[in-house]
Amino acid sequence: MLVFQPEGKRIKAVEGKTILDLAKALGVQIRSICGGHGTCGKCRVIIRDGRENLSQPSENELRFLSKEELDEGFRLACQAIILRGREIIVEIPPESGLSRQRLLLKGVERSIALKPAVRRITIRLKEPTLTDQKSDVDRLLDAIESKVGFRPTISYEALRNIPRVLREGEWVITAILWMDREVIAVYPGVRDKPPYGVAVDIGTTKLALYLLDLDDGRVLASASTMNPQISYGEDVISRILYIMKSEDNLERLHNVVVGAVNELIDEVCSKVGIKPSDIHDMTAVGNTAMHHIFLNVTPKYVSLSPYPAVLRSSVDVRAKDVGVKMNRGAYIHVLPTVAGFVGADAIADIIATGLHEMEDHAMLIDIGTNTEIALGNKDQITVCSCASGPAFEGAHITHGMRAATGAIERIWINPETLDVTYKTIGDVKPSGLCGSAVIDAVAEMLRTGIIGLNGSFNSDVDTPRLRRREGAPYKEFVIAWGDETATGKDIVVTQNDIREIQLAKAAVYTGISILMRHMNLKPLDVKRIFMAGAFGNYIDPQSARMIGMYPDVPLNRVKFVGNTAGSGARMALLSTDVRALAESLSERVEYVELGVDPDFQDEFVKAIHLPHREIERFPTLMRIIGK
Amino acid sequence: MLVFQPEGKRIKAVEGKTILDLAKALGVQIRSICGGHGTCGKCRVIIRDGRENLSQPSENELRFLSKEELDEGFRLACQAIILRGREIIVEIPPESGLSRQRLLLKGVERSIALKPAVRRITIRLKEPTLTDQKSDVDRLLDAIESKVGFRPTISYEALRNIPRVLREGEWVITAILWMDREVIAVYPGVRDKPPYGVAVDIGTTKLALYLLDLDDGRVLASASTMNPQISYGEDVISRILYIMKSEDNLERLHNVVVGAVNELIDEVCSKVGIKPSDIHDMTAVGNTAMHHIFLNVTPKYVSLSPYPAVLRSSVDVRAKDVGVKMNRGAYIHVLPTVAGFVGADAIADIIATGLHEMEDHAMLIDIGTNTEIALGNKDQITVCSCASGPAFEGAHITHGMRAATGAIERIWINPETLDVTYKTIGDVKPSGLCGSAVIDAVAEMLRTGIIGLNGSFNSDVDTPRLRRREGAPYKEFVIAWGDETATGKDIVVTQNDIREIQLAKAAVYTGISILMRHMNLKPLDVKRIFMAGAFGNYIDPQSARMIGMYPDVPLNRVKFVGNTAGSGARMALLSTDVRALAESLSERVEYVELGVDPDFQDEFVKAIHLPHREIERFPTLMRIIGK
């Protein structure tokens, strides 16, 4: 028997399986970035009992785990193979768990005219008689045609219900029409309930779902959760690699994300007191990989040069084909993607911010594991996708963690004493650093001279916080001492962590830079910068500018707009005009493939500097750090 | 344990269940006309062992079974309830079994221009490059659009396969297009196989299915089977009553008929060496009740005044919604019905015979448990449905049986000796009479004066074959003596059997008569009579005319056209023009509800006479019988 602490979940200890395998089988969530290859070192667990029933530590484990840790019972869950089916007790330490995370549900909301894809009409029919034996369906469709001027088709589900509904309602019937084209559901008599709709944003890391009243456009409830695909790889590429490993894996990832969407639907329904079958419409957005997997369509070619998507244009699929739990006749409208990894979320971003209607040039940066950037105005929009990696979300960072309770989210360094002040989510003892804190740390260390413009620690800084541990290849800077932390260990930022942030911000800046050159714009030509993404709101704009994540523009031009992908999905749920707009944007927007740009390498290398090798591009920062 | 002989199938003897219940659960077929109410007396079985474990014979059984039979172990399967779960051995005698029956698969075939709903196109696409990252779907649809001038949608199934198929075929792809509207399937490279289609005629009693090559229109294979719904009631009304008994019963009948269709599909596929997934189109016809049940739509209101159908117009449903085993993207085109019980089979009949194009007036009689009659020409067509009952198929007749091996199918009576000559299907010892033999018997007895014009036995006929058994309420005429038969018992036609035939033929004649009056036609105005139906071909036209089933017209005007419903379904499979024609016929054809016609009662009563109370309507017959 294998027991996972602290939750106490139990599963048969199957010989030959890894601890991670069984955790997945049981639904116990353990961090895993590399998809179980032993190369990320994140799936740390502590064996509390039964060590002798596991394989010896692998080379990978000897690399990631210190001797002390091995003695304490630390293992990597993906490497520890069960040799004997005896009792094994495994503790998942906080840094390896996927505790409920702070997710941004709100977003900008632009007012739009209500024009949903579904509407209900109530009709009183004449009862059949021996001289009027018209079929039930003809009777209904004739009446709809004479009332609204067109003759819809009928979904198979509605068709089956019509005879019962007509008689239960004594020949008064409420029909739900989709796109003025198809009767998707029928109800006896006058139906008081409005049609409901859900909009879902399928992020690589999180899912956010909103329930709306389609009669008045109000958001009635929202819910969010981690994307459970995370257990199969934290970023898009490791999930695609997982899909390529076996034929069944696409279906598996598809099923887990649809399962999570269904749970969110149950959650919002019970908040409002309705049933999933009362939901008659849905819109979905996501990057190209999430979009494809949600549709059970392989995303593998999106990751292979020349990176074509399977599907760019928007598509209406029947909820029951995809497996989403809502009215059985309902459709899901999946918004269009652009190209490569630039998905329906980017289109939603543009619509939500109104970039496509602006006179002045504006830029949108949707920060995530993939960062989408859009630059333009009403005349022209270019977009690109940067593989910024998960560092902004706290991954690939020594003490990085997601923005969950216990994560340090803000850091200030006293330039005189070099003492550190920090703020933790939930105001509990810290167990790690979330992305915004790592950005703060790098910006603050730069500002206070602890690190130089190239990102290296200055050797002449004198503080016990800056140190090199015995045998460690790099120096590190202590953010929190062990006696202040939940783990009892120091929380540090290492030279390597700084490099990760430098690479991530360089990727974003390079994307911005290439798009600006493409449109022949200088930084000050960009009148507005929208920072979006579920994590975007928590980033300190000054810190982000300090490290050179975006060009040196006055901070009042920077606006945090939150989860614009979700906003765009909601707008598309409320208006078929927005759907048409999304489709035309998807065709109009110019996609720039960064990988093939001849300047990419050169720009990227220069952008690794803090804030940039050509520091004259950042005059404000030159002032701040006194250069 | 309950054991059914002669097949030897075994099932646990569950206390409280009837033998019929367990036979159904096991898939053992026992005749049952009344749906298990104990009122038809057809589900006779012989208890070979374990009588003491069954309930005492019910009142119904005492009515249907003689004392000798009860002593021999005869019971009605629907009445015998298991009291104790011990060994019970049940023999199903031939007359109660549903042995494989002679079914007519052939039908008339009119030549039509090939214009199937599905077609395949093969396209060579440009490979994507870094400067041409068009999505797979756009790439395919753009190519189809530029080749054929329209842009189809894509089925969810095809969508999922596109990325794999494009690469397997090295950017050569064969797409199957449905109605020039939707890509329903895709194959790598050039596909040699044509699209295949199946046409199915869903009769109350039998299913007939044809596999066609949609490139050249050839019929490649055909197969037929009994409609397994028979176990739940032999006629449409008893099946509808069964459906009304419980919510699950519609689904059950739907599932058994779809299961049988799937078996027929497997059968024709293995004959030709293809897979069900190679089948890309299907057409289906049936009377309104069969049509509704096939679609899993309740037929119950069709049986309740004012008899409205749920669905009249043709409908395209996805095969996977209905559960039919063919290509997962394929559609089923279900032909339109007319009204009441006049279903898609009648429309198919009209199309197959070309009635709607004729200058002269013609009549079509599709004989079955429900007999559909159409009368008209290119200008006007009227139709009605007669509840002729299953007597023409051998049911409700003392020694009646289906047209299976061992059934007497032809009878001649020597007018001098009153001796009987008969022919048996399969040339084996007879076990009963099929419908055509009963019609022959009545016609021959009329011709030879054994019965009079009112259908009663003439008391002055002197032959040992005409007798009254002790205690029997009616006289009977012996067709075959016990020493000639498979059962060892005499095969007889009783006075009651004659009445059944009189009622059945009166129903048909009344329908004809009312339609003729509706169109203001006399018998000789009808230049052609088409006799259709799976059993129609075996009826002797002279005998049928002799008993007054149809008007007195020269026999050379009568043409047996076989299973025209199947022919019509095949034509619709081959041409969307035929589908459009069916739709327009369904709207154009005038339905006459016999039940509300003020002359119905009067006409019916007069038609019970042989051939008719107004015998002057049958001048030819007056000559034959010398009146």
Q: Could you please describe the fold and organization of this structure?
A:
The structure is a homodimer of 627-residue chains. Chain A has 627 residues and is of the alpha/beta class. Chain A has 5 domains: 2-96, Beta-grasp domain (Ubiquitin-like (UB roll), Roll), CATH 3.10.20; 118-188, Ubiquitin-like (UB roll), CATH 3.10.20.880; 196-344, Domain of unknown function (DUF4445) (Nucleotidyltransferase, domain 5), CATH 3.30.420.480; 349-388 and 505-624, 2-Layer Sandwich (Nucleotidyltransferase, domain 5); 391-500, no CATH class. Chain A has 17 helices and 27 strands. Chain A starts with a strand and ends with a helix. The interface between A and B is large, with 45 and 45 residues.
Short description:
The structure is a homodimer of 627-residue chains. With 627 residues, chain A is an alpha/beta fold. In chain A, 29% of the residues lie in helices and 22% in strands.
Assigned CATH class of the largest domain in chain A: Alpha Beta
- Based on DSSP secondary structure assignment, what is the total number of beta strands of chain A? 27
Distance between the termini of chain A: 62 Å
**Main sheet specs of chain A:** 6 strands, mixed
Helix content of chain A: 25-40%
The CATH architecture designation of the largest domain in chain A is 2-Layer Sandwich
Strand order of the largest sheet of chain A: 12-11-10-13-15-14
Please tally the helical runs of chain A, counting DSSP H or I stretches of 4 or more residues: 17
CATH superfamily of the largest domain in chain A: ATPase, nucleotide binding domain
Outline the low-pLDDT stretches of chain A.
99-107
Shape of chain A: globular
> How many domains would you count in the coordinates of chain A?
5
Q: Bin the strand percentage of chain A.
A: 15-25%
Oligomer: homodimer
